[in-house]
Amino acid sequence: MGNNNVESIYWDSCVFIDGLRKTRSRWPQIAELESQAKGGKLAIFTSALTIAEVVRLGTNNELSEPERQQIDSYFRHKFIRVVPVDRIVARQAAEIVRNHRLKPPDAIHVATAIRTECRVFYTYDGDGGDADKLLGKNGTIGSPALPIKRPGEFGQMTLDVSE
Asked: Is residue 1 one of the residues assigned to a domain?
């Protein structure tokens, strides 16, 4: 599914949330990846599940209409490729849940990244060092093993094809 001319990367829901919020400590790395994607150097893949998970930008439970429109329009960018959860992804996710002790939504994200042949999976899930969170599974799922990193941790800020 990945394009030979463009590096394919995967963004977990939390990366979209921090990007939309422009979270101070995370925004520079997210903005750099977004800029590369807008410039045609990267394609950002994510599961359709992400749209269901990115439901709040502030601390309150209710989205304002401008926030809702901001989220909806962001997922329409042509550099973001939203992948449906189909039977193949669901089966692979179930296998990941059984073998790697991930929650089903996280397993769906990983299975989608593997299915779309993404070079790296970006997330902040597990920042506290929890081995049962996504960052704790770096290099343990898939064949070849999928790198699961924080934005900005994979090579230099730009993806190096020779890595």
From this structure: no
